[in-house]
């Protein structure tokens, strides 16, 4: 039952309860963390909530975005979340906005109306933008993220570390259709093999992108989009209507077991369509059925989609059952740490053997297994299945050692982590709302898989907020250095690739000394527009930008101004595409799995909820740990603790008085738009 306003007065005290009720909160994102957060805010007594989300609900969201039901698929997340909250918290005024938070409508004035802003976002670009808008509007921002078992929530305001103080790397993500129909890299095949393992041996999961392979659950194979870049699950695109699963029926989401309901259902359905194991099967029959369905029937179905193969070669059929008989293997002798590549025949032999072995030795676990890289059966299965998939699609085959390295880095969203992150955001929101927007009591809280801490071990570890990075160009006086070939890079490329893409600016203006190279003022006269367009196509050298030139960059949309130092390097990075031919100071090379060195997919391009995320090693830049939620991996927390350790070796969780922080921080007030405008006009007049 929801606490009444009387209850909240008892819990918070009368004044505090009133402040909470009167606070106006902006929630950006109504996905995994957003659903938890909205529910928590409403139950904690926040009555004025605005929620922005551009997305629509996908069937793959339903397993954790609990405000949505099957009938909401295809509808606005923001609107449906608001509807769901209003039903149990009728006093709360929820204002949903189906929009992109980077839209011009959401300017500094818009942000200023809120007591606080909560980010529940899934991509870097929007996070960086909201960070800048909140700093410009002087509104506290609670930034959050979750990945697998790790998560965090922190508070950003003037005087403490902002989102841009730490170097962020885009998340690696893959469109569902690439995994399902058009793999062209080993990692795509490995992700696919993990889904197949979970499909065969794990709990029922509507979000499994291969669920159409089980013909008893999906009447016809899914048809992916022709361009191979679909970002929704195949079944949603086809509009299949499947019966509500157990979760939607409100029944217990207990994993199926060999004796459970799922298998009872399967016995009643057409055995020829069955994919998963049934007690009617022998291990041998089961293995042959899976091999045929996956490497023959499904490949035939994929080959029949001719539009997919106009620009690329279709997959080939491979008789896994026959190939496996050429050189049978003994699983005990298979070395998973071997760095020699398995060929297709050997992969086939391992594939068939491991399927039989799981049935023969672990039948009681079927329905509750999920991929674990330290489970030998799971790893043997994935190494073999991924190679057979790669073989069909002409992708290089891998050694089991390489496969394990890639498979171990793949991270899936976990509802429990989202719930914990949603909870700690509201704890910080309550501190801000009850202290007139002050952040003195706020902390960063990390959620980790295993209990940590030197005094008390806990999976929720609070740490004091840190001071801004003096090199930050957003909240401090940081002045980035950019090396580029000035004779090759045009102003347009500089704005697009360096300022917008790399530094997440929105409408950057570029000045050199007293000259305006590019400006975005809304009532420019025609001559100016023409001149700036012509400037865009000129190389930086032609615009008198030289080695050592300092460019002044202003982005009025983000109330941001900074200086960028330019250095010239002839023929810089000629082997890279033009959009990567520059070096930004502190932008150290990122170690990527060998198999995936050319991948540029990221969360900025696709919705992280509808893609598969692949973790990487963390990057340390300028001695600052990259703590972004996307980057948190095993061991991340230890590094943070070391860096923040006090002289006595304890992790600091006491609060530093905010005055000290402000004095030391050397923060710079972002330009107010009017001042900046005046300055711009003066410069223009002088030039
Ligand atoms: Zn900063």
TrEMBL record:
Residues 239-248, 259-276, 615-630, 657-687 have a biased composition (Basic and acidic residues). Residues 11-454 form the THIF-type NAD/FAD binding fold domain. Pfam families: ThiF, UAE_UbL, UBA_E1_SCCH. Residues 364-404 form the Ubiquitin-activating enzyme SCCH domain. InterPro entries: ThiF/MoeB/HesA (IPR045886), ThiF_NAD_FAD-bd (IPR000594), UAE_UbL_dom (IPR028077), Ub-E1_IAD_1 (IPR042449), Ub_act_enz_dom_a_sf (IPR023318), Uba2 (IPR030661), UBA_E1_SCCH (IPR019572), Ubiquitin-activating_enz (IPR035985). Residues 483-571 form the Ubiquitin/SUMO-activating enzyme ubiquitin-like domain. Residues 212-276, 586-687 are annotated as: Disordered. Residues 217-238 have a biased composition (Polar residues). ATP binds at residues 29-34, 53, 61-64, 77, 122-127. GO terms for molecular function: ATP binding; metal ion binding; SUMO activating enzyme activity. Keywords: ATP-binding, Metal-binding, Nucleotide-binding, Ubl conjugation pathway, Zinc. The active site is at residue 177. GO terms for biological process: protein sumoylation. Pathway: Protein modification; protein sumoylation. Residues 604-614 have a biased composition (Acidic residues). Zn(2+) binds at residues 162, 165, 472, 475. It comes from the Eukaryota. Coiled coil: none annotated. Heterodimer. This is SUMO-activating enzyme subunit. It comes from Gracilariopsis chorda.
């Amino acid at each position: 039952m929801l606490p009444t306003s009387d209850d909240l007065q008892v819990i918070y005290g009368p004044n505090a309860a009133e402040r909470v009720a009167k606070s106006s909160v902006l929630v950006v994102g109504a996905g995994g963390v957003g659903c938890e957060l909205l529910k928590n805010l409403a139950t904690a007594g926040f009555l004025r909530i605005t929620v922005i989300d551009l997305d629509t609900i996908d069937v793959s969201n339903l397993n954790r975005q609990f405000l949505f039901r099957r009938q909401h698929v295809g509808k606005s997340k923001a609107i449906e979340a608001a509807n769901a909250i209003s039903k149990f918290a009728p006093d709360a005024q929820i204002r949903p906005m189906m929009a992109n938070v980077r839209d011009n409508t959401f300017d500094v004035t818009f942000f200023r109306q809120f007591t606080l802003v909560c980010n529940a976002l899934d991509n870097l670009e929007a996070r960086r933008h909201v960070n800048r808008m909140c700093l410009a509007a002087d509104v506290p921002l609670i930034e959050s993220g979750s990945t697998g078992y790790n998560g965090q929530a922190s508070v950003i305001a003037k005087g403490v570390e902002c989102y841009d103080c730490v170097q962020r790397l885009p998340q690696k993500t893959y469109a569902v259709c690439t995994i399902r129909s058009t793999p062209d890299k080993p990692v795509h095949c490995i992700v696919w093999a993990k889904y197949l393992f979970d499909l065969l041996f794990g709990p029922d999961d509507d979000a499994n992108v291969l669920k159409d392979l089980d013909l008893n659950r999906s009447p016809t194979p899914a048809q992916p989009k022709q361009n191979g870049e679909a970002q929704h699950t195949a079944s949603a695109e086809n509009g299949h209507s499947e019966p509500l699963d157990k979760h939607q029926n409100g029944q217990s989401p207990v994993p199926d077991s060999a004796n459970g309901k799922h298998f009872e259902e399967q016995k009643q359905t057409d055995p020829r369509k069955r994919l998963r194991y049934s007690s009617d099967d022998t291990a041998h029959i089961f293995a042959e059925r899976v091999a045929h369905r996956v490497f023959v029937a499904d490949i035939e179905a994929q080959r029949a989609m001719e539009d997919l193969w106009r620009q690329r070669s279709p997959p080939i059929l491979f008789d896994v059952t026959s190939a496996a008989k050429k050189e049978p293997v003994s699983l005990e002798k298979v070395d998973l740490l071997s760095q020699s590549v398995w060929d297709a025949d050997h992969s086939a032999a391992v594939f068939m053997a491991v399927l039989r072995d799981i049935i023969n030795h672990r039948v009681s676990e079927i329905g509750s297994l999920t991929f674990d890289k330290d489970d030998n059966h799971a790893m043997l299965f994935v190494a073999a299945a991924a190679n057979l998939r790669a073989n069909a699609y002409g992708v290089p085959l891998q050694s089991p050692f390489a496969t394990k390295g890639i498979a171990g880095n793949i991270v899936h969203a976990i509802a429990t982590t989202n719930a914990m992150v949603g909870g700690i955001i509201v704890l910080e929101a309550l501190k801000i709302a009850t202290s007139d927007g002050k952040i003195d009591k706020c902390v960063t809280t990390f959620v980790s898989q295993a209990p940590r801490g030197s005094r008390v071990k806990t999976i929720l570890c609070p740490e004091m907020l840190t001071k801004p990075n003096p090199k930050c160009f957003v909240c401090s006086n940081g002045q980035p250095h950019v090396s580029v070939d000035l004779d090759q890079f045009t102003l347009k490329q500089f704005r697009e690739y360096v300022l917008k893409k790399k530094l997440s600016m929105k409408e950057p203006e570029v000045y050199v000394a007293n000259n305006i190279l590019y400006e975005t003022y809304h009532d420019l006269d025609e001559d100016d527009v023409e001149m700036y367009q012509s400037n865009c196509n000129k190389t930086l050298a032609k615009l008198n930008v030289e080695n050592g030139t300092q460019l002044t960059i202003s982005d009025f949309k983000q109330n941001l101004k900074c200086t960028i130092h330019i250095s010239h390097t002839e023929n810089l990075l000629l082997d890279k595409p033009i959009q990567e031919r520059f070096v930004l100071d502190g932008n150290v090379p990122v170690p990527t799995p060998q198999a995936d060195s050319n991948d540029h997919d990221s969360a900025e391009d696709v919705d992280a909820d509808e893609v598969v995320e692949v973790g990487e090693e963390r990057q340390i830049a300028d001695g600052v740990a990259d703590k972004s939620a996307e980057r948190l991996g095993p061991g991340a927390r230890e590094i943070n603790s070391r860096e923040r350790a006090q002289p006595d070796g304890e992790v600091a969780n006491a609060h530093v008085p905010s005055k000290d922080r402000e004095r030391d921080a050397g923060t710079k007030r972002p330009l107010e738009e009017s001042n900046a405008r005046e300055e711009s006009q003066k410069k223009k007049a002088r030039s």
